[in-house]
## 1
Amino acid sequence: MLREGLHYLAGHQGMRRLAATNPVARKLASRFVAGETLAEALGAIQQTNRLGMRASLDHLGENVTSREEAAEAADGYCQAFDAIAANSLDANISCKLTHLGLDLGVDVAEELTRTVAEAAARNGNFLRLDMEGSAYTERTVSMTKSIFDATRSVGTVIQAYLYRSADDIRDLNGRGIRVRLVKGAYLEPASVAYPNKADVDASYRRLADALLADGTFPAFATHDIALIEYVKDRARSLGRGPEDFEFQMLYGVRRDLQRRLRAEGYGMRLYIPYGTQWYPYLMRRLAERPANLLFIMGNVAREAGTARRSGTG
Ligand SMILES: Cc1cc2nc3c(=O)[nH]c(=O)nc-3n(C[C@H](O)[C@H](O)[C@H](O)COP(=O)(O)OP(=O)(O)OC[C@H]3O[C@@H](n4cnc5c(N)ncnc54)[C@H](O)[C@@H]3O)c2cc1C
């Protein structure tokens, strides 16, 4: 129930406006978001690189409603590729097609995404097209394929909870397109996605097998220790070394595990989001682990209690 409520709130425009100026929401967001400016995000990447980890930079934004906003987002991504190169950072970029105008039409998003992918190619870098809700899956997979054919500099994300994912991975593997495997972060109906965690985890294992066997530098994006151990075992038994794949985790989530895997010699890339449009991203992170909400509410209540006791409330 709580999870569904948080997903509902993620898409609520009024709540999005309210949250933008609410100090509690902003504090909560700061755990998962590197800042509001590109300069802050570049600083977070630098720190990440110093720890021996790579980064994937995400300028937060989705479901834009005008071509101007989409074009501005595309310009921002091109500048970010230049800034990554100018600062010699080990980072690529992740973006959402609805940030680049997919709701306005496939042609709008395709033109802008191609421009960003060309900026990636010019810089010898890589653009990851994040996967959004199932209404966008087919368009995201097919745009990844066409832009890959033109630039060789894009890959995408496949969600283990979708029934269609084994077919998508077979297709993408056959074309040499890089895949990030995730469980999936959206609320989906049982007609398209496994409703039970055990089935999603089993699907993740099967898809990981396919990626380790035939994929091009696959990325296993999860904080689930059982799945991470599974991937490590399977990689070993297939003779895949740490240079053949990487793990990915979210900025601010399971830092202990990030460092441990790095110390074991595995490639680790952190997904580093920044920008003012953090509200839907934050709500999805809370929906993944509603305990985060209780933890923060507890902190807020404690701080309010301290303030009352010291007479400043
Ligand atoms: C690098 C990266 C990129 C992603 N890109 C996409 C994408 O493009 N499309 C998409 O649909 N999804 C994406 N996701 C989200 C993904 O689908 C899952 O929703 C998310 O990773 C949580 O699932 P999990 O595999 O970590 O396993 P879970 O079973 O959800 O979590 C395992 C453990 O990880 C920890 N944990 C997980 N989430 C949180 C959290 N929010 N806060 C604190 N602790 C947490 C907890 O200890 C939990 O017990 C991405 C995830 C990562 C790591």
## 2
Amino acid sequence: MRIAIVGTGYVGLVTAACFAELGHTVIGVDIDRKKIQKLSSGKSTIFEPGLEELIVHGLKGKRLSFTTDLQTTLHKVDIVFSAVATPQGKDHHADLSAVFTVTETVAASADHDILFVNKSTVPVGTGRECERRIADILRKRKKKIRIPVVSNPEFLREGMAVSDTIMPERIVIGINESTAAGVHEPLLRKGVAKSSINARALMENLYRPISRTGKPIIFMSRESAEIVKYASNAFLATKISFINMLAELTEKTGANIRDVALGMGLDSRIGHRFLHAGIGYGGSCFPKDVKALLATARQCGCDFGIIEATDSMNTRARERFFERILTFLPKKSTVGVWGLAFKPKTDDMREAPSLDLVSILIAAGHRIRAHDPATMENARKILPRGIRFCPSPLEAARGADALVLLTEWDEFRGVDLRELKKTMKGTDLFDGRNVYEPSAVKAAGLRYHGIGI
Ligand SMILES: NC(=O)c1ccc[n+]([C@@H]2O[C@H](COP(=O)([O-])OP(=O)(O)OC[C@H]3O[C@@H](n4cnc5c(N)ncnc54)[C@H](O)[C@@H]3O)[C@@H](O)[C@H]2O)c1
């Protein structure tokens, strides 16, 4: 099939490369000219394991190409995906301006029936609003073409994005009666002719290379699909905040949060995943999606007290850890920071704890030596000046009064703790992800500060 994917960021680029790998002809579209130039030369613009190989393979096989020209692209494809960002906007609502820009460009330029698929995370009702805007523009253009709007939320995890896309646990597709007909709902009621497009069949064909391996495609209404995405992220965030809440209690009572999590997680109804105490969730999705869901709930008059608590507990988890660090640090300390990205195996720094901590430490007069395996280039552009970026973990720890682990990259887990002790000046090790055994840290002559331990 011929597909355009608009927005070649963490989601759009992976989706484009994977669909091309699965045999579709894919055009990745972005407004960022530099990004398109780099991608066209076979270089990935993000750090994501396995992605660059797929980009090169797709380009060589002529199934994948990149452009900034959406208008021309629309004449060549059957399906257009919107995978643009939906960052936090006014009053915590998702900022949908990029989604609507793409929607309106498609409506203003398409010359044949085309399926519009929303892959961005958007609040419930956005599909309907896209459909309304499309109908308005087509009416003004006096164009008798149909552009049905489908919701197809994305569940990939950065760092695992390629395998998550090729082997997803589920594919959720939201199609309404109006979508199936390819017209805006009120027009459908007036009996306007149906589209030549069969949205469900197109989506089934598109995903066949994946669904034939047994991965389920679930069809539902567009509104339900839009909610599934926010509900999933808010649920996972709640699990994280729940264990971080208990970590405060285990600290105060001499219990150990790891044992508590182990004892809980072995119950198959609960499970171990997302039950690790730490400095809370960050990244480009959980913080903004939790807040956007709350904003939608408020707008609809629903009481989402559980999610409110999830959000505030996340702030508290981070603050508690930062306060502890500040309490222990002597004046004008040198602090080694391990991990700047919001999680391992990505270079994404959006809402990363490092952004807050580094600023707080610098404002308090401390010096920073930092290392991250993938995101030093990004970090240099975003973090305040005066940070010493070091080529290895031990270099970042050299002469440090204290070391703070913020991101649980594998290479930090297996570090030789005795070597680390020799490299540092001080002895405090702040483990923001509970990856070290306190007894091993102690045996190496370091002082351990974990969470809930
Ligand atoms: N990053 C994730 O792990 C993840 C996972 C699931 C869902 N999502 C959702 O997917 C969406 C995209 O997220 P992302 O992380 O890929 O964002 P991103 O910021 O990495 O990428 C967005 C891309 O869209 C481009 N863009 C913006 N406006 C454009 C326009 N008018 N025309 C063409 N290109 C345009 C930008 O230049 C950028 O390259 C968001 O709604 C997000 O919530 C993200």
## 3
Amino acid sequence: MKRFIHFDELARDSRFVRQDSAANNLLAMLPDDVDTVVDVIEKFDPIIEASVRGTAAEPLYEEYGPAFQLVVINEPILAGDPKLTERLQMRVHGILVGEMQALEGAARSLWDFPDAPWEFKMNMARQAWDEARHVQIQEKLLQHVGGEIGMYPESTFLFEAACSEDPAMRVAGVNRGLEGLACDVFRDMMRYGVAARDETMTQAMDFVLADEITHVRFGSEWVKEFTRNDPEHFARTQDFRREVDRRFSLGGARSASPDAAIQIAVQDRLDAGFTKEEIDEIATLSAGGPSKDTLQKALVILRERHEARKAQASAGQSGAE
Ligand SMILES: [Fe+2]
Ligand SMILES: [Fe+2]
């Protein structure tokens, strides 16, 4: 089996639809400026449109235009929301493919570094076992919220943080970046489960979150071990984690802002070996993106332009008849 695959080589069966991750990654780079947000998202419109065709995201694209993902992911999941079903299905589908990418990341950390200490390999094997169970749990939860595998496209933007050829960078990306985000998301799903009195959701996410804290702890410990006596190497892994955390803040959807879609799970992260300073840093990184006000204004403009294009296209079509 090949070592060190490129993220594009992540294999899936025919049920899955691969989405260009450019649209996800661009969220991380958006500044707090309405015109720039509109310009950047419009530039990606053809890619976004192509990636949703034939999936459950197509009606959302038709309704909101290229910024539909911002509509769905930047709002908290609340019981009673008219778009609750879509939000829940998109979130759980995203979690399911995230678990599969975490499984691939952990299993590849075991395979890619044959000279790593035995304890590291045992930790990665334990994580791969946990992630395989999580995939099964999330598949059942997706059915529980009325969804099915492949209904939304899969972006590899999580897995892109899991391909470093340096073991310290690998665990910084997978076990602190990706698994840290998992803690934030699962704590948020528990919040939703309690509010909606959905005991299945609450209990399943509680069990999964307990494992994720252990996985982050593996990362916290192994980054230290792999960079022992090499402060410069440690500093590089911290820079990489910051970069990953900036991307994983999803344009501020995961942040410390009180109206954020996903809050930073402070206590869980402390339990998992993040320092208070690191958690404050993630809050600062995620606050650097566009504010909710900026996004809402941009969404209005993008939706109007989308409507105008649709009207023009249908006028052109009826003129041609
Ligand atoms: Fe997991
Ligand atoms: Fe995990």
## 4
Amino acid sequence: MTTKLGPVKDWENDFDVLDYSYLNNPFEIWDKLRDRCPIAHTDRRGSNWLPTTYDDVTKIAHDFMTFSSTQVLVIPFMETARQDMENINPEVLGYGAPPITADPPLQTWTRRLILPWFSHKKVAEYEPLTQSICDNLIDKIIGRQFVDGAVDYAQQIPVRVISHILGVPEEMTDTFTTWVRDFLEFADNSENRFNSIRDIVIYLMTVIDQRKKLISQGENLDDIISFLIKEQKTNSEINDAIVLGMSILLLIAGIDTTWSAIGSALWHLGSNREDLVMLKNQPEIMDTAIEELLRAYSPVTMARVVTKDTDYNGCPMKQGDKVLMNFPAANRDPLVFENPQVVNLRRKINRHIAFGSGIHRCGGANLARMELKVAIRTFIDRLPDFKVDESKPVMWAGGQVRGPRVLPLAFLD
Ligand code: HEM
């Protein structure tokens, strides 16, 4: 991904999260900013602020009155696209994709509706499916000398799991992946981005209509979209636009976030043999290792919009400015994490905020953790001797979600 706005020369006053150097190695940039200018600013794509300390990111995340979630996109949606969307479904613009694009009270009750679908108990039910997805993928990879860990493995897993939860056909997985990439990863291409969200909206509107018909004919459907439709009978607040918005969120939220985390974990293990060997020989450290990999390679940055002119820590934030919730940089803050640049798979104290902080904390965290665990365990059990193939380039995506999109792996005999 490249930016049309030119390379960054001044990270403190003109940062760009799509700059090539930021995509490849944001860690050094955050360290320098944290020392010299802990909240950077840019006027690229509107007035945006970028906090880099744990303290600032968590404080801002908790102050939802001043920092609203009604604009969470790191790369803003073009105004013309908003107008085009109005022709397709004007209501969805009003509600967005709650709970992630909402403030209380809408955020509170829409979040409460979906949380039971991602409880520990419910997630355990999805584990055998996740295991068989991973095993099938490995069956196709095994025996090959070169594999793309991102495309052939990581990218294929979360989309299949969430398709099952939404009750949509597995054949749609490539289409969903393309839509989500166009919407989040290639967000600078506004035409593709609009087309992708238009197609998602049209597709889900059709699915919702079909489900409604089947439910009215007495079919017993057990998927999250049907659940939301059935809830409409007893809760008049759940209008059709909310069912649509929540379905959009559920489709988008769990796909490239989780595949990025799986890809980054494979990249780390394929680049650090001693960690790979340790995890292979000591499977009991898997849970701790997953938390450390989430801390070190946190994939998600979200945005907030400033609701009123505010002086925050000496930064003159204006109403309408955006703040980029830099959870990944906060997770490398030396005031909170000992030796934050060292990836220590046995790290004991690790209060990372890869899943966010405050009221919007990730609704799918249990699911993401389970998918990561099954994906990594299966890979290293069945293909134990792999490494990143340094003769070929690794390609990182970033902006809203950071992770490897091309990850050449080689296997030792
Ligand atoms: C490693 C994978 C994942 C990471 C790192 C991640 C990260 C995050 C973060 C940082 C937020 C907070 C957003 C904010 O503060 O604005 C969030 C919210 C959310 N995530 Fe995840 N996520 C992951 C996987 C998933 C999965 C698998 C799902 C399942 C569908 C999911 C569903 C949600 C939902 C529904 C919210 C909104 C919660 C709310 O606004 O109350 N996420 N996620």
